Structures are given as C-alpha cells and as structure tokens.
TrEMBL record, chains A, B:
Name listed for the protein in its UniProt record: Metal-dependent transcriptional regulator
Main location: cytoplasm
Keyword annotations of the record: DNA-binding, Iron, Transcription, Transcription regulation
Organism field: Haloarcula rubra
Family: Belongs to the DtxR/MntR family.
The keyword Lipid metabolism belongs to this UniProt entry's keyword annotation: no
Length: 230, 230
DNA sequence: AGAGAGAATTAGACGAGTCTAATGCAAAAG
DNA sequence: CTTTTGCATTAGACTCGTCTAATTCTCTCT
C-alpha cells in the first residue's frame, strides 16, 4: 500500500508536469507541498525505489506510467468526491476542496465505484475539471484558456475555475461565476483588473490573479469538444 | 489534532470499559488493537499526557470525560458512516464496517453534520447500534440480551447484531436475520447450536458463537424503550 | 511470609516523514 | 576557462508508532 503522503507527492508531480516542462525540480515539489527541499529529495528517492518516478539526480523527476496511474487515480478520487459533496451532500462548490483533499486517500475502490454510479459516471467536477477514468488521461481541454488572454468584447463561457482558495471561490460563486457561466469581456484595465458582464447584465470586476484562475472557451468550442454538459 | 491511532485507542478503551470492569488493562487494549503490550503502554502514556485517560501504573486506564467525548465522537462517525453507506450508497450492511473504520477518522464535523441531516438524524445504525449524539452517551439498551440466554419458545425481536466479521454478517443477512427481525427460539441443542424460526416460517440453525452476536429483546420492551423505529 | 507466575514497564531499535546545517554540483557570468 | 551563485543532496537529528528483549512489579499460592 502507498501512504497518503506518497500519493500527495505523485499528485503534485503530475500537476507540475502539466504546468511546466518535465522533469519536475525538487524545489518545486517542495514548495507545492510546503516541505523543505531535503524532505522532497528523500521522498522522491523513495518514489524512485518503488518505480513510481524516474529520477535524474540534480535535475528532477518524471512520473513512470505506474506513477501516473496512481496520480490519476488520486485525482479521480478527488474530483469524484468534490462532485459528490456538492451534488449529494449540498456542500457549496467552494468548500469541497479541503474535505476531498483528505478523503481522496482513504476511500476504497468500492466506494469510488459506488459514488461514480450514484452520480451517473460524471465526466466533469464542480470546478469544471475533467474526472479521469482510471487508466485514461483526462482529455485536456485545449480550447480553454485564461480569461485575461481575451480582448475586450469577447463572448465566452467559463470552462473551469483553477483555484484552490476557498475565499476566492466563494467570491466568484457569489458573483455568479461558475463553470458554464456565459460572459462578455467588458474592459481590460491596465491596472491589473478585468471587468466582465454576465448573462443577466451584471458586471463584475476582478483583479488579475483571480481572473487568471478563470479558464474560458468560446461557446462554439464547447460544442466541438463535447464538454458542454457541465 | 488527535491522530487516527489515538482515536482508535480511545474507541477501544471505551468499548472495553463497557464490556468489563474499568480500569482497562494494557494487555487487553493491546490484544484488541493487535499491537504488542509495550506499544499499548507507550500509547496510553501519551493519552495520559493529553488528559484523555487516567492511568494507574500496573493497573490500567479509564477514560476521562474528555477522552470519552472523543471516543463517542468517533463512534458517532463510525455509525453514521455505516448508515450512510448502506442507505445512500447501497452497500450491504455486512460490508460497511471496514470502510467506516477508516473513514471515521478523516471526515470533518461539517461532513458529519451533513450526513446526519441527509439521513434525517438517525438514532440507530444498520447493525441496530445506537448512534451517540455528540456529548450524550447512547442509551444503553438494557432490554437487549444475547439470544442464547433465552429458553426455547421465546418470542423475540432482533435488537442488534454485535459482530464485526463480514462473512458472518453476510450469512445472517442472507438468512434473513437483521435488526428488527422477529423470531422464535425453536431449539437450544446441547452441542453448541441454536435453532430459531423466523416470521416467514423458515428455521435457521446457528452455532453458539454466532448466536451470541445476536442481541434480542421481547417486542414489548422494544416499544417501552422507544427504539422500534429500526 | 516467601516464591513464582503473569502482567506491565523500561530499554533500545527501527522506518516513515520531517527538519536544520553543511556540503556538493552545474550552469551562468566573467 | 575559472569563478560564482543557486539549487540539490548529504549528514544528522527528532517525533510517532511500532517492535523485541530485558526488567520490574503485583498478586496468588503454599
């Protein structure tokens, strides 16, 4: 059995591989998991012993296929749990992250299957992120990009919200911005601020660091990608 | 924060206090948790440091009020989870124990509240055990006693099934014996076997060690105790 | 009361996961 | 081509939960 800690490292490495260029540096892992670099070094050595990562000393690590399988399994658990907590237990989508972060390591495969069945095998979690189906990589939705990259006047649909901070998510939720929301870019202010107008006509202004968390796509892309059942 | 391990010790001590005479011996705790006596000793020392148990060296331990509160909280989590897994996720009541045993240490108070609400604040879990409500001790159902203690011909109702072995529970479940089942003691054989007749007329024979796990009461007591909404 | 049996505790070790401080490597700057 | 700088690793220590082996306590039996 793999410890919860090891699963956390694998999950972090998986995410970091997608965000930047593999191999993933030890210090990056350390930062992500809020541990010191020596701790990260000793953990990746253990992961290497178990053939979950490939390591080039002084360079960094990449996941082996086995490591990736574990990472995806954990991510699947996480997203399934987030969906379950929101849909079945009435949690607010902004507060499910913490709970799922812990539970993801402790549910059985049986639990996973039953939850997936109860939710009717969902493809996307409440943040709009795809739920990987076991061995398969989630289809990375390339049509989605950061809100800030679009010019004024662009008509867009929120694909997902890449944020882990519960306060910020609550703010967006209250403002009416969730996956599926349609909006138009009203103004991109040079002072690090973006204003959008929602379907109902309300406008919402957001500082760049929050706007960056909002991934959008044009409604046409949504149909083309077949991911519109959010 | 208390570790899952410490919670396990507290829960075990709580159960052992009810089953026998406090103080609870170190070796008994060790046996229950399948660790060696020195391990149990060192853990109870730590529990003492945190004022969760009172200890008399070479004698044993008793829970302090704080320790008992924690134990009850964990037991509440366990039974709530068992109920949830059976009612909402369609688990068989015989297979929920393992899953609940792990999850009980990892759910938040928020999760606990929401599950309790979703289940409509249940008073009893699928095994027929009362679900303690936070600070309050569960009402110990004194009218319930072991099936084997009743003579032939006694008309009884199953109050709870005190067993943790999944195979045995499945067997009883298949045989139609669950909390709430009405039955009549047909024969108490001197070879360590008890035969009962169920409502439908079927008879079931059980070896003593299994019959002992079945706690029963007379249907009148059930009404008097107000625990009949099983 | 004294001896022995049986249980509990102490002593010392280990793996996991973490830290700080010291050292080593490698890539950029000169 | 050598130096510097910055990240990575090694060294060594600590806590938690566990173990085995050795020791000590308590209680019962004669």
């Amino acid at each position: 059995m793999l410890s919860a800690k090891m699963e956390d490292y694998l999950k972090a490495i998986y995410r970091l591989e997608r965000e930047g260029e593999p191999p993933v540096a030890t210090s990056t892992i350390a930062e992500t998991l809020e541990v010191t670099p020596p701790t990260a070094t000793s953990m990746v050595e253990k992961l290497e012993d178990r053939d979950l990562v490939e390591r080039e000393k002084y360079k960094g690590v990449t996941l082996t296929p086995e490591g990736e399988t574990v990472a995806l399994e954990v991510i699947r658990h996480h997203r399934l749990l987030e969906t379950f907590l929101t849909e079945e237990l009435g949690y607010d989508w902004s507060e499910v992250h913490e709970e799922a972060e812990i539970l993801e390591h402790h549910i059985s495969e049986e639990f996973e299957r039953r939850v997936a069945a109860a939710l009717d095998e969902p493809a996307v979690d409440p943040h709009g992120d795809p739920i990987p189906n076991d061995e398969l990589e989630p289809i990375d939705d390339h049509s989605a990009s950061a809100l800030a990259d679009h010019g004024e006047g662009a008509r867009l649909e929120v694909a997902r919200v890449r944020d882990r901070d519960s306060e910020e998510l609550t703010y967006l939720d209250d403002a009416g911005i969730t996956p599926g929301t349609k909006l138009v870019v009203e103004e991109v202010a040079p002072i690090g601020m973006v204003t959008v107008r929602l379907d109902g006509g309300e406008t919402v202004s957001l500082p760049d660091h929050i706007a960056d968390a909002i991934q959008v796509r044009t409604p046409e892309d949504a149909v083309a990608d077949g991911v519109s059942e959010v």
